[in-house]
Amino acid sequence: MQSGASPPGPTVDPGHDSPVAHPAPPRPDPLDMRPAAPMTDTHPVAIPDPRPPRRMVFALTPLADVMFQLLIFFMLSTTLAPYALVPLSAAAASDAPGAPPARDEAPSATPAPARGLIWHVAAGRIREGATSHPIATLPDLLARHVSDGIEEIMIFAAPDARTQDLATVLEEARLAQVPRVRLIPRPGRGMAGGLAAPPASEIRP
Q: Which H or E run includes 200?
């Protein structure tokens, strides 16, 4: 009685009478350090990027800087005309060409706009429109304007105006009892003689 299975015998080729032995496959050598042959049946694998997609952002900071620089440039180079202080009144309806004559109406409660003058004070002279007057003729000039019903004088200091010229004009206007005098300095500069002044100084007698 056999205790174990007998090893397989040699295989018999059907075409031959004698048995034919087939060689066994070679066993891998554990000491062989050569790299294994590459696998030919491979496919590329795409690894997803964990970072979110980057979007193109248009920076507005340089544009804002340019706009602020242009704003500052125009603010410094632009002169705010103080002539806006002069009251203007619209023409009456009867003054328009072809308009019918105005009827006799009750006087309006709205007061008439004040009559004003604009003077440019220079060195020893006063320019009123296209006419220039010496400082010495200022009392007669003021008396004539006050008799005509002048109510306001706006005084602008020329670049060559002296402090004494401005003081003389203001004093003569006070003595002539001009209702209101406005002293307006040049934009961005002080008054003549290095004296700083507010944007518009109103002087009443």
A: none
Contacts of 44 (CB under 8 A, 6+ apart): none
Residue 183: CB atoms within 10 A of its CB come to 21
Domain range list for the chain: 114-190
List the beta strands (DSSP E) in the chain: 116-121, 125-128, 131-134, 152-157, 180-184, 201-203
CATH fold, domain 114-190, is Nucleotidyltransferase; domain 5 (3.30.420)
Q: Which residues, in sequence order, are CB contacts of 199 under 8 Å at separation 6+?
A: 184, 185
Q: Looking at the chain, list the stretches that DSSP marks H as alpha helix, in order from N- to C-terminal side.
A: 61-77, 138-147, 163-175
Question: Is the CB of residue 119 less than 8 Å from the CB of residue 153?
Answer: yes
Query: Which tokens go with 26?
Result: 């070679």
CA angle 18, 19, 25 (to 5 degrees): 150
pLDDT, one tens digit per residue, over 19-74 is 555 666 677 677 766 766 666 666 777 777 777 777 777 777 788 888 999 989 88
User: Can you tell me the distance from the alpha carbon of 183 to that of 170, in angstroms, rounded to the nearest whole number?
Assistant: 9
